[in-house]
Amino acid sequence: MSLSSRNFLRLLWVYYKQCHILTTKRFRYKPKWAYNEKPLKNCEQALGNFDAFYKPFYRKDWPSIRVSLLSLPKHCAAVNKYGNVEKIQEQLCDIGAEDFLLSADVSVQNEAMSDTSVNGPKQNATVPESSSVNFHTQLANEEAVDAEGLDMSQRNLLEDGFGADQHSNDDLNMFVPTEKVYSERDLLLREEISLNSFESREISLSVLPADPLNFSPDVGAFVFQQGDVSRFPSPKPHHGCLGYYLMDAASVLPVLALDVQPDDRVLDLCAAPGGKSYLILQALDLHGGGKLHCNDVAQARISRLKNVLRLHFPQDISERVTITKMNGTSTFPTIYNKVLVDVPCNADRHAVTEDENNLFKISRTKERLGLTQIQKNLLISAIKSCVPGGTIVYSTCTLSPAQNDGVIQAVAEELWETSEIEIAVQDLNPLRHSLSRTFRFHDRSQYGLTVLPTLLNNFGPSYVSKLRRLK
Ligand SMILES: C[S@@+](CC[C@H](N)C(=O)[O-])C[C@H]1O[C@@H](n2cnc3c(N)ncnc32)[C@H](O)[C@@H]1O
């Protein structure tokens, strides 16, 4: 069968392109093709992912955040009111630590409460477009964004997944049925990009003025000064209760935002291994009407939570804590006036430093890509279990804008469209201003506070958003 000259030219063109790819692109990409190249470790996968998605968002801050994430974190010693408080405080001061809550600059809180700048209190105002953070628009100013809205690093990520053979697929499109062009892997990568993008939209969400600052209880959270990377010794027991709990200082923020009062009824929806439950119990009076319900879905982690309670609290306190093993997205009774939802997330610091139990393991890709949906469902469940007038605090330990502001925005939209429930976001500027000596906050978080890790005070990352259920 003879070829028409048009078809012949077409084949020649495809052949030429193939040769061109083989002789140029193939060699340019050679390191990725080496058959004996070792697969990336989970931590390296995570770091590559963050370079692709966080760098365009955090821009000039990214190099210092990145090196901090890879460096040893700093701890905070949260003093236990059931230990020998005075002696512990004295010992901590003697080794050079200071209570960052005591040294918080509360004088700026009044100033901050009247601040009406971006992120400031705007009673019953919708979030204005001008103050919104548009991920893609910002990219455009800084880096080249291609027709699909991807910056160079995101494009590289896609191309790493596609490999050079996909370049030739572009040219051979006319011979290949469309559904075969995108393999399952390509689709996952596209899903990755859409799940990691946070695009700010104008939504109807009131912003309530801040509550007065209340660092209760005042037994203290001790940290070493900026630049001091000393480690705390392990705590010692006093009458069977350990004197303090070591945690990331940024983990204190969600509990400060929750503003726990002695007689509150608190639900900690994703409680294990129990760092924040420990802090909540420092403020609650379980003998005087206060209640704590700790829930988690993972049995092994609940065991760790029980251990934390056993090691830090007298038996008559730990026995009064309700502990359940339920999926947090199931229905909880609407009886709590304070609800903390500290969701599973990318867990950035863990992801780039620990290969074990790492969500960036290739076999866990689908689980990881399902995170934002679980986070939304958990937040909705938390809101539904909170009585009108009560407070919900949403927190993560990731810098992912999609898992932070993105989840708050999506939930506000969903509740607005599908339910009678009304929520408002509460201003956290006073907290931010008063603790700016200890933490470095990102200045473009829209519905909460984001702590950026820094080498001087290597805490975080952490994101906190405080919501009030109105109806
Ligand atoms: C970030 S950790 C919580 C840390 C804890 N708040 C603390 O301060 O120690 C997230 C927790 O959510 C739990 N989790 C994941 N999916 C869940 C679900 N569907 N329902 C309830 N808990 C869940 C995990 O088992 C994990 O313990």
TrEMBL record:
This enzyme catalyses:
a cytidine in rRNA + S-adenosyl-L-methionine = a 5-methylcytidine in rRNA + S-adenosyl-L-homocysteine + H(+)
Query: Per its record, how is this protein called by name?
Result: NOL1/NOP2/Sun domain family member 4
Q: Which residues form the SAM-dependent MTase RsmB/NOP-type domain?
A: 179-470
Q: State the organism of origin.
A: Plakobranchus ocellatus
Entry keyword set: Methyltransferase, Mitochondrion, RNA-binding, rRNA processing, S-adenosyl-L-methionine, Transferase, Transit peptide
Q: Which residues does the annotation say bind S-adenosyl-L-methionine?
A: 270-276, 296, 342
* Places the protein is found: Mitochondrion
Q: Which domain of life is it from?
A: Eukaryota
Q: Name one GO biological process term.
A: rRNA methylation
By sequence similarity, the record places it as follows: Belongs to the class I-like SAM-binding methyltransferase superfamily. RsmB/NOP family.
User: PROSITE patterns from the xrefs?
Assistant: SAM_MT_RSMB_NOP (PS51686)
- GO terms under cellular component: mitochondrial large ribosomal subunit
Looking at the keywords, is Transit peptide present? yes
Q: Which SUPFAM superfamilies match?
A: S-adenosyl-L-methionine-dependent methyltransferases
Q: Name one GO molecular function term.
A: RNA methyltransferase activity
Q: Which Pfam families match?
A: Methyltr_RsmB-F
Which residues lie in coiled coils?
none
Q: Where, by residue number, is the active site?
A: 397
Tell whether Oxidoreductase is among the UniProt keywords.
Answer: no
